[in-house]
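Self-study notes.
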Amino acid sequence: MYEDLLKDVQEKMKPAIDVAEANKKAVEALFSLQSEYVTDFVDSSVAQMKALSETKDPKEAVDLQLQFFKGLEEKLTSVAEKELAALTDAKEEIAGIIEKSLAEIGEMPYFTDFNKFMTDAVEAATAATAAATEAATEAPAAPKAPAKRAPAKRKAAPKKAE
């Protein structure tokens, strides 16, 4: 009995576990890419500082800086593209898991019974609203009662002169 219950729970939790695994893979890929980028950035920065310290010509130093920043931009672009690809893969995998789970929910007998119940309830409510609207439009309008006049305001008595 407990084994059946455990098996049933594992089957029901499989989509959540699959989503967690997809997230885990994406996070690991992102951490790996970031780690590689930071390591490469630090190494190239140290090499750049060493090259600049050995340079005597200002024009050569400017050229080294331009090359450094161009290389840095290329590496950053490459890492960003790889990260975006990892995130896109994770999104597609998770979307597939969710679509599959929703399709399985629609196939469950108690869910289809619930849908039928809700559809019947909506149809009954719609019919009742239509009948009430029809009855309201067919009934003659009740005559309006004459409006009551507000009581007249009393004027204050004039003050006596002393």
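Second protein, same conventions, sequence then structure:
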Amino acid sequence: MLAAMLLSTSAFAHQFSQGDIKIGHPWSRVTPSAAPVAGAYLTVTNSGSQPDRLTGGSTPIADRIEVHQMTMDDGIARMRPLPDGIEIAAGASVELAPGGIHLMLIKPNQQLIEGSSFKATLEFARAGTVEIEFVVQRNPTVETGSGNEHGGHTP
């Protein structure tokens, strides 16, 4: 079973780049039907000599993409948008992952089903736009059981 999971995960490995910015393995979690939001994750690497900033993005399947941060406060998960985005220092990588900083698809217009994919455009302050494709999958190492870490969050 572990070998099957590793094989299916490696089949989804994919990268995109624009100038000094490299995007590794963009993925989004499976959602229930009519979910008001969906989480999306990836790794951003800046191989340049100047910092850059991921500020958000767009996709045909949602109203918009925002950068969000999840924090725990007295045992309660809190979501908040980061309107200025997140800085990617020169020569550094930043992982957007469940339970921390991530991308939030606001008002998706379709259910995200395992194995499907969707196109998106990420916006960077210096690099401009980067066209990518998210793969919808479950994350077996972080799965919460509900398949949606954003339950109860309203945009």
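Instructor comment on the second fold: Confidence is low (pLDDT under 50) at residues 1-12, 142-155.
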